[in-house]
User: What shape does this take?
Amino acid sequence: MGLKLNLGCGTDYREGYINVDISRNIKVDVLADLNLGLPFKNNVFEEVLLIDVLEHLNNPDKLIDEIYRVCKSKAKVIIRAPHFTSQSAYADMQHKRGFSIRVFDDYTGETRWSFQFKSRYNIRKRMITFPKGKMFWNFIIEKLVNSKVFIQNLYENSFLRCLFPADSVYFELEVVK
Assistant: This one.
């Protein structure tokens, strides 16, 4: 098994991963500010976790380029971040933004804006998740919204996003080199 990276791990320290965070108050393997790049060699990682981290960064696109640099071809990159309709996207003073289900489209090389990015990824999975708990209807909404990319786009571009605010976006990307 290849090297795995858990960026912005916080208290989610994972065995079998190199756990990276800026905080000195938690257990980490590498202390680093993700806004300043990654202190690793090129083409060494086969998996990267980025769970609830992108919303904290000044320039998330810079970190996406850094992940590309340190990953091998076909590496798996798992990302979760608050959806732009989520209350949590703006409930934390450290959050800088929320995200759309289309945030990684330009990294595929298939959009008119792809020329802006040198990093390339295949989007293997994309989901919009919804808060559950007492909002039992969100189980049905989540299944319906994620049934097709067309419906995900319809949800984000219509009044439905106001009626049923989402929680987060989830992606599984594959590095293309």
Remarks:
- The radius of gyration is 16 Å.
- The chain is about 20% helix and 25% strand.
- The mean pLDDT is 95.
- The helical segments are 60-70, 88-91, 137-145, 149-156, 160-163.
